[in-house]
Amino acid sequence: MVFPDAKWLDFLKAGLPAFLGLAAGCGATVYLNREGLLPAPLPEPIALALAVVALISGGLALGLLLAAIYRAIAWFVKPRYEGHLYKKRDAKRKREFIAYIPYLSPKERQIFGFLLHHNRRTFTNTSDCGYAAELLSLGYVQMIGRNGQRVEYWSVPFGVPDPVWEALEENRDAFPYVPQQVSWRDRGNGEPEPWRKPGPP
């Protein structure tokens, strides 16, 4: 089966101004012909064809206009609506974390206390997140490496999400900083990081 050539449909790419002009021109011609204001009256078939072209062009122009209005509204509303959803989601996560604070283990409190004291929102750890593994599973810390970023097993980047960090700053008293005791042999390495389990550096 041979389908007819559809290149004639390329006129649909003309755009809103072209369709408006065509509809206005054909409509004006039909109106002037009906009022007898043309130098010579148009034959009825031609006048009818012009009326049909005016209707089709006007419909296409109206469709393009509505599509343009929709895109403009979407461009204006979508980012604001998404921003509202993000704020609502973050507020919910913040409330959930605050409600979970009483159930944090002493080690988890120590981890957050260390980060707050040193004003650090990011840290590196093993890929299983060491002593912060449960915090990772709950979403209270998250892996922040980019897709395709190559990292070593002992230096995987993690970070505290915005809503959790806001809750931490508002509830600092619940996360006291307790410096860890460092033996005289390890003093050159600085204070140990509370989220790391013993193993290679």
Quick overview:
With 201 residues, the protein is mainly alpha-helical.
Report what the structure shows:
The chain has helices spanning 16-34, 44-100, 106-117, 133-138, 162-170, and strands at residues 122-125, 142-143, 156-159. The protein is mainly alpha-helical. It has a three-stranded antiparallel beta sheet with strand order 1-3-2. The longest helix has 57 residues, at 44-100.
SSE order:
HHHEHEEH
Shape: rod-shaped
Largest β sheet strand count, sense and barrel closure: 3 strands, antiparallel
- Uncertain regions spanning at least 5 consecutive residues: 184-188
**Order of strands in the sheet with most strands:** 1-3-2
**β-sheet strand percentage:** under 5%
Q: Helix content range of the residues, please?
A: 40-55%
Alpha-carbon Rg, integer: 34 Å
Mean pLDDT: 81
Number of helices in the DSSP assignment: 5
Q: Please give the alpha-carbon distance between the first and last residues.
A: 72 Å
The secondary-structure class comes to mainly alpha
- The number of distinct β-strands equals 3
